[in-house]
Amino acid sequence: MTQINPALQNYLEACRERVETALTQTLPAGNRPPSALHEAMRYATLGAGKRIRPVLVYAAGKAVGVTPDRLDAAAVAVECIHVYSLIHDDLPAMDDDDLRRGKATCHKVYGEAEAILAGDALQALAFQTLADASPATPERRLDMIARLARAAGSRGMVGGQSLDLASEGEQLEIAELESLHIHKTGALIRTSVLLGALHGDADETTLHHLDHYAKCIGLAFQIQDDILDIEGDTLILGKTVGSDIDHEKATYPALLGLEGARQRATELIAEAHDSLQRLDQRADPLRWLAGYIISRKH
Predict the structure, then answer these.
(1) Mind listing the pLDDT tens digit for each residue in 30-85?
(2) Phi, psi values for residue 169, rounded to 5°
(3) What is the reported pLDDT for 1?
(4) CATH number for domain 6-295, candidates 1.10.10.10, 2.40.128.20, 1.20.1560.10, 1.10.600.10
(5) For residue 109, is pLDDT > 50?
(6) pTM tops 0.85, yes or no
(7) What percent of the chain clears pLDDT 70, i.e. is strictly above it?
(8) Per-domain residue ranges for the chain?
(9) Do 91 and 111 contact (CB within 8 A), yes or no?
């Protein structure tokens, strides 16, 4: 098993515990009507997952001097968007997966209709939380809501999923594949970093460098996911290995080979580190996360 930097391990645990508490408090109680819907939302969201996007919110905020308590609403919002996307991606009409985060997918437990509604409700809850609970100024809050909406919509995550479905069985060029994943995976990762930074007083140059950092780690994250779909262990990964091959998806290993994919990920992480050069030691969690992204086993 890959050894994680102890400082990063402690930071990940602290952030995950913090966002888990915030999610538990934000999600409707499971016994509150409509109870089946609320149970499905809590089932899909709580108790599992890497929480990379919320951690990036906290880490980017820390890099510009923002305390964690000011970042909880943004961390909850990005995780709600992410979980909604996972619920919908797992549906039979999409990727048709039975396992997610080490347990049965939401539609396997609650049925397809309830799973769709749970995803819909989580998407709405993300924007409600950012609008109601963020301590940012109204103007900055509106900016963050707009950014999250773009990242989640047809010019971001949903558009990327559409491209991904359309590309099944097709041979893409590397530029086309990177464009697909800049939308599908990268858009929400980039927005997570920017939402954290926007709670502080980061100038435009700092925001630009943080955005480039996030673009690089977003692509590297997807490359590692593609590699793990080939080399991973279902029990460790928490989802079924080999699903990309089964769906004839275009992947980095398919285009570049496993070693070529690893080299591309390494190059992207080096570029991400370069983007953080002007930031002080408060950005160390972002530096640690960059390395973790391509060494993780799940």
Answers:
(1) 999 999 999 999 999 999 889 999 999 999 999 999 999 999 999 999 999 999 99
(2) 85, 0
(3) 44
(4) 1.10.600.10
(5) yes
(6) yes
(7) 93
(8) 6-295
(9) no
Kindly state the tokens that stand for 126.
């993300």
pLDDT of residue 232: 63
Both tokens of 57, joined, read: 């919110």
